[in-house]
Amino acid sequence: MISAVKGMNDLFGRRAMRWGRMEEDIRRIVENANFTEFRTPILEEIALFKRGVGETTDVVQKEMYDFLDKKGRHVAMRPEGTASVVRAFIEHGIAMNEPMPFKLYYIGPFFRYERPQKGRYRQFHQLGIEIFGDETPQMDAEMIFTACRVLEHFKIDYEVHINSIGCKECRPAYREKLVEYFSSKKEHLCEDCQKRIDTNPLRLLDCKTCNPKAKYHDIPVMTDNLCGSCDTHFKQLKDALEIFHVNGIIDPFIVRGLDYYTRTAFEIVANTGGSQNAVAGGGRYDNLVSDIGGPDTPATGFAMGLERLFDLISEDFYTEPLISAGYALCDEAVDDLVHFAKHMSHHPVRFFADYKPKKFKKALQKADKAGAEFMFIIGEDEAKDKKILMKNLNTGEQKLFGQHEVILIVNELLNYESGKFSATKV
Ligand code: ATP
Ligand code: MG
After folding, report:
1. Which stretches of the chain drop beneath a pLDDT of 70?
2. pLDDT tens digits, one per residue of 332-359
3. How is residue 21 annotated by DSSP?
4. How far is CA 192 from the centre of its chain?
5. Is 204 helix (H, G, I), strand (E, B) or coil?
6. pLDDT in the model for residue 320
7. 281 lines ligand 1 (CB under 6 A)
8. What's the CA angle centered on 30, arms 28 and 32, to 5 degrees?
9. What is the per-residue pLDDT for 426?
10. How far is the CA of 420 from the centre of ligand 2 (A)?
11. Distances (CA, A) of 12 to 15, 86, 121
12. 297 in ligand 1 pocket by Cβ < 6 Å?
């Protein structure tokens, strides 16, 4: 038997319906804040991620889904969205052609070769937003606020952790302090962190294996080592977040997995106690566009894991749609049912027809199994009189309509549906 590739999921039925609704809601929220959709390919040259995400990151070193194509080009399935968007931003001269700030969002699949577990897959989905051409701390605050807006919409309980990781001016000196601090503790660190001292010492701060931040309480922190302008930027960020009513907890151990961040870094965790509880993360990356060969362009953004978001949304957040089903009880009724199905298709109700004639009892069982709350029956008598019988399966109530009275029928269904939902909402 052939099964799905490890770490990759199928989605269907009720879950697919809820997932679709979730995406629609997200699009509406971010589009209202004037973000427009930006789509880039799944495959990129691997060189883009090496430069754009960083050679020393776990994503590039361990998690890439990469291969040689038929012409020997080294390509990779995108592990994140920012590098691709920056590539496209430069390639299409967006800095010259569009008004700044340029606000975009993306929703789609991403690929990382990780050990699959709950909340961690090899194909997963992200919502991301990016804002180019604006260096203000207020825009960082709006960016973080947008992530919060999404979580609030879905009534999720969360915490925002914020930090500043400085800039090209102040981070090198801080990095030296960290190297010095951890060099004497090398033997107490995990294998990865021993390497990180040389390659990416900031990543020691959020290592989940040897967890240095839990062991040592005098680790130097970036927020004590910011240069004047980064310090002002961080203060103004905190002020703006307060105005947005975002209650950010200052957390000097938020460093982000990707190399390109400057100044603002943040993460949002859900208050669920689970281990894969980081639902979104991001920050400012003022040097990435120029590092990849584009014009000097400040930028800020976040990515949110949609599988993790989906798992946090309560079961009763989306009400089930009202479903109705139509059945023919004899051969003579089949064409009438086809007509009826055609007319019903023009209306905003969820209706399906089952054209294979069957006994009333069998039709009832099938409707019930499909979760229908209303069924429509055309039997011998109804076919003769051009009638259709509507049965409310919850109450047993029946009504006879003319087969052409589709508008009346649809009104009945819509009234019933709105009554049902307003009753459950209060
Ligand atoms: P983590 O520390 O959990 O590995 P990360 O720092 O690698 O996260 P980012 O690169 O910032 O994550 O991606 C943003 C969000 O995407 C994460 O907060 C998480 O919700 C989600 N995410 C990342 N990797 C995966 C994955 N393999 N499966 C499902 N969701 C993921
Ligand atoms: Mg990761």
Report:
1. 257, 259, 273-276, 421-426
2. 999 999 999 999 999 999 999 999 999 9
3. H
4. 29
5. helix
6. 85
7. yes
8. 65
9. 39
10. 43
11. 6, 33, 17
12. no
